[in-house]
Amino acid sequence: MLKRFRHLFRNWAFRRTVETGTLVLNQRRIYIVPSRQGFGFAFVLVLMLLGDINYNLSLGYVLTFLLATAGGITMLHAFRNMAQLEIHAGYVEPVFAGEQAKFVFHFNNPGRMARHQIHLHDDDDHETVFDLPAQRSTPIEIAIPAVQRGWLDSGRLTLYTHYPLGLFYAWTYIHFDVRCLVYPRPAAPQPLPAASVQDGTGKMTAAGDEDFSGLRNYAAGDAMPRIAWKVLAREQGLQVKQFTAPQGSSLWLDWAQLPNIAQERKLEQLTRWVLDADAQGLMYGLRLPDGELPTQNNAAHRAECLRRLALFGSGRT
Amino acid sequence: MKLAAPLSSQLIYGLIACILLVSAPHAEHLPLWVSTVCTALLAWRAYLTWSGNTLPARWLLLTITVACVLAIGLSFRTLFGREVGVTLLILLATLKLLELRAARDATVLIYLSCFIIITNFFYSQSIPTALNMMLTLLVIMATWVSMQTGTLTLKPRLRIAMVLLLQAIPLSLIIFVLFPRVQGPLWGMPQDAYATSGLSDTMSPGSMSKLSLSDAVAFRVSFNDKVPAREQLYWRGPVLWDFDGTTWTRGHNATLQRPTLAEAGMPVSYTVTLEPHNKLWLFALDMPTRLSIPADFAPDFQLLSKAPVNARTRYNAVSQLAYRANLNESPQQIVRALTLPQGFNPRVKKLAAEWVARGDSDEGIVRTALLYFNQNGFEYTLEPPLLGSNSVDDFLFTTKKGFCEHYAGSFVVLMRAAGIPARVVTGYQGGEYNELGDYYILRQSDAHAWAEVWLRDRGWVRIDPTAAIAPGRIQGGLNAALPDNTALPFFVRTQSPFLHKLRFNLDALTNQWNQWVLGYNTERQFAFLTRLGMEDITWQKLAMNMLAGVSLLVGFFTLVMLRRLVVRQYDPVQAAWLKVCRKLEKAGLPRALHEGAMDYAARIAAARPELGEGISDIAARYAALRYGGDDKKTGLAAFKNAVRAFKL
Q1: How far is A155 from chain B (nearest CA, A)?
Q2: Would you place residue B46 in the very low, low, confident or very high pLDDT band (cuts 50, 70, 90)?
Q3: Among partner residues A47, A53, A59, which is closest to B130 by beta-carbon distance?
Q4: Phi and psi at residue B554, to the nearest 5°
Q5: Do B567 and A68 touch (CB under 8 A)?
Q6: If phi over 0 gives left and psi between -120 and 50 gives alpha, with beta otherwise, what is residue A235?
């Protein structure tokens, strides 16, 4: 509840602009308020001052004023810890739903002094903490769980610091127009559908799994039946049997041929097949209700297929 | 909040150092076992961190804590009061180290350390204490910084701490000078009142001089209209009649008669705010006639409250500065005022008998006695030598060094030996004027003792023998009367001129420190600021000046600190290349972030074929200079020429 109110307040109080290009943190972007420890410290100082007055401790006044001014001046240090940083968003690798989207921001510290303990976090408390050496650009990654397929927006991130004494909270909001493409979560492994010979019409040949072509290293998501158990038994590592479909045959991963299951399940199944078909080096095509991609086998094709699956039904391509 | 990361060992070592540093000055007045326990606990904590073992279980800590608190309660016989409080604070801070789990605990410890530093000032505020404070503060800051700087090593942390402190010093100086000083105390804890020295109802050699070391406020007075001369400001307290050879006590009045004043004149009316002293007496100028609160008027003009004064008490009083007091003193009181212990001080009695034998009047004998004090090399000092069983004899004929109680006591003995009724009156003398508040402050150091003699047609007359030896005490207060402090026997004995000079310098430095730092109170602040040219000093004015000074300094710091935030450092090759890029950007062909020089050149060549040759040449040279191993010196000149020649 409180969090929600805070959210509403922030949206109302601070302008919501989405940045493109390079953002420079200047005084109009950095906000500073005392932290909870800061208020606690102020309370301690008031107690000390009362003691000084009551017992007429001159040296106590000196100590109290030293602590108070040192504490106060940390506001300036907190500001300096963030000021003039140059930030631009980096490329975000697509991920599968259920994985962590790794948003990358390049922080350039153009100054002569290092910046300490800057925190970057989103509204759901995913956080990363980092230092920025002087005169250098540092890529900073923040991992945000990708729950749903489609575009994942980084949202507005909070960049803050408690440096140097934790008495002040200096922060800024950064909201770049970066998004992460989230592919559907691959379904559990299932045999690929039967491939059809390119020119054969309707004639089904059981192929695709038939011709053993060699072994390759195991990769996450490979089907259990394809693991070369004998090789493993010979202690030659975890290998996966690879098969090639006969030349000229092509595999159509077709939405329409899937049994009547929920749309998301269908997408997850197709995703799994795209991965498997690609791994096996099959020529495969993807047929979705809103269009089809001709059979191919290369990285760009795989990416395009996954992208279509990720954005299916969203109206954005 | 997020789960805190485990605290780094350098933070823990830092905290151990902080607690050690802030407690060390207390070691000399803490019970030995407390110092030992604290040291052992700190060593244990350091060992746990060093060996990576887990912290002790909560039940164990709880047991230790309860045992320690009980032991403190037993050894101090109380759990309240300043000394016990400080001891508890140090012990608990040390124990807190052993259950340090989250960053919040560390913050609490830092705050506690700062607080413990201040408790040390109850005991000492000397220059070494101040230097020690700065060192401790530096360590505390460096530890504190480590909570917000992750893995930073000690040296850069010390640097950050140093910068913070160096910036804080001038800022606090401004605030120290301008912060309006309030004359404390704001409150008096009951146990403080019991603890503070105040006048007691007995007087023996040394009791007053001990009081004079205390700066505590006894009471404050504001006069309603005119202020009497300083020589008239005798604040009457307990009147002492009975003498047993060393100690004067009040005894019991032999009459219940109210005292009477004849030919009273020069009335003064004033308001007294009395700090709690847990005794019965109230203070008023000689001689009080009216009081706004219920009190007993004792036959010897003492004002006695109905109950011990254990809260701040305010009352109005009227006194008559000119009077003839108790002209008809009761015979029993006269007898009391002539009684001397048998068998003590034979020489005094002999001296008094000589004076009487000369046939002088009573007044003449009083004058003779005062003259005797004035002309026989008597010295007014805070540190009188010890006296034997014939204390008055010893003082008058041998040591001749004493404080007001010696003079008042021996004077009364002399008078009684000469057959003149006399008694000792204790109280306060003078007062320190506070211009901001227009009132007088009476401190314990203003405690004083004087004498009263009863003369047949004048009644009780106040005689202050101290004034005969050190008139400055009455006119200018204690500091004016005492010689410069000479409590440095080693230096005093040494004849080396270097050490002499050193001693004088040290003394001068300490004096300046005492005057300007420790003694910087309302009056001094007022005087100092007036000298600086500030007029009509008010709180608002002080606040405005403080704000202005602090803002100015902070502004300066800001300028200095934010100066080096953007430092572009290009080598000449890149600078020249960026010049080309800017030219092209103006022409609407900006370089994309990901584009290398060669790619960019190729794109330009495709878009604007007329530029193709120039840009390709420049890009090739740039790549060769920057990434190839080309000789910078010769290549650079050619590259710069090519850039200069490149025109859109």
Answers
A1: 20
A2: very high
A3: A59
A4: -65, -40
A5: no
A6: left
A9 and A135 part of one domain: yes
Locate the domains of chain B by residue range. 9-147, 192-481, 572-645
Q: Is the pTM of this model over 0.95?
A: no
Does residue A302 form part of some domain?
A: yes
Residue A287 lies in a domain: yes
For residue A54, the enclosing domain spans 2-183
Active site residue B464: yes
B29 is an active site residue:
no
Q: To the nearest whole angstrom, how far is the Cα of B189 from the nearest Cα of chain A?
A: 10
Contact predicate B319/B288, CB 8 Å: yes
At A250-266, the pLDDT tens digits run 788 888 888 888 888 88
Among A20-34, B3-17, B386-400, the range scoring the smallest mean pLDDT is: B3-17
| Structure confidence by residue, pLDDT tens digits, B239-263 | 999 998 888 998 888 777 788 888 8
What residue spans of B565-608 are helical by DSSP H? 572-586, 597-607
Angle formed by the axes of helices B127-146 and B497-513, to 10°? 60
B315 vs B292: CA distance, rounded Å: 6
CB contact, 8 Å: B515 with chain A? no
- Residues A147, A226 share a domain: no
Residue A159 lies in a domain: yes
Q: Which of B404, B438, B581, B630 is catalytic?
A: B404
CA distance A215 to A241: 5
Q: 3-state DSSP call for residue B167?
A: helix
Assess whether A209 and A179 both reside in one domain. Answer: no
C-alpha to C-alpha distance for B602 and B613, rounded to whole angstroms: 10
Half-sphere exposure of B11 (CA within 13 A, CB side): 24
Which of these three, A183, A218, A236, is where a domain ends? A183
Does pLDDT of B126 surpass 90?
Answer: no
Q: How far is residue B49 CA from its own chain's centroid? A: 38
Are A142 and A40 members of one domain?
Answer: yes
What would the pLDDT profile of A161-194 be if each residue is shown by its tens digit?
A: 998 899 999 999 888 888 899 999 998 888 887 7
Are B381 and B466 within 8 A, CB to CB?
Answer: no
Alpha-helical regions (H) of B98-126? 103-120
